[in-house]
Amino acid sequence: MPPQLFDSYGRGHDDLRISVTDRCNFRCFYCMPEEGMQWLPHEEVLSYEEIARLVRITTELGFVSYHLTGGEPLLRKDLDRLVRMMLQIQPGMDLALTTNGVALPQMAGKLYAAGLRRINISLDTLDAQKFFLITRRDVFGQVMAGIEAAARAGFSPIKINAVAVKGLTEQELPRFARWARETGHIVRFIEYMPLDADRSWERGKVLAAEEILEGLSAEGELELTSGHPSDPATRYRYRDGKGEVGIIASVTRPFCQACNRLRLTAEGMVRTCLFSNVEHDLKALLRGGASDAEIETWLAGVVWTKTPGHLIGQKAFVQPARTMSAIGG
Predict the structure, then answer these.
(1) Pairing with 212, which of 137, 249, 289, 293 sits 20 to 30 Å away (CA)?
(2) Which residues constitute the domain of residue 309?
């Protein structure tokens, strides 16, 4: 079924990113403060049944791609149950999960058995000391064990997401490139975005796509691979056939003109853009007796309000009040 929800710029929407929790066991400097986080009360977070209802409604509207995020989604108990519920609604959906990997030694097998086949693991460095500097947590070994557990469970290829920050990431590029070529994992570098709690983001701290590509090319000649226009990552492979990498250039090469996504926060707010300062209260409808038809009409109205782009780097840009962990990665 083709997309049924269009914004005023003609963009069809068929991709929903679902945050299942705002809680996280890391404190990455580009996302969260070192301490003092206030978590949502349990009763304010959408239940799996409420999430499944929205999945069913959006399936009827032509959505085919779903992505589970957080916070750290594996802090949500029995997440494999939600995976099963979603795949029962739409068995052929493109379903993915993004995790920091710490809980994968315990959860990878359960998630794979539930039907999940795509997994993204956040890992910004292959150096244990630098990992601690970035995450403020001494669990590098556990993350690496989680990646190995995912591979043993059957996930392939595994995508590794690394935030690229000037002064931190340059030395990582050749190491990640070699690792990708050796393991078959797909490493994707994400330009540093203004979503940090400390509001210390500066354009000068962004390691740009061109710089990332130059660093990766030191390990071999790269060629562009084809992808869908709405894919956030520009994908490259090494010409000798060993290794694939990607760059998500949200700052220097925004892909807003082809955006097909909606976002659902853990407490049931719909956002039309990661960088929006406007949220739409779906939970009030879910818990207020609204029919499926009423929610469909409401979603159509929300999507129609979507702006043309995020405005990063322009005078009109206002950093979202909430951090990435509270919005959903």
Answers:
(1) 137
(2) 5-327
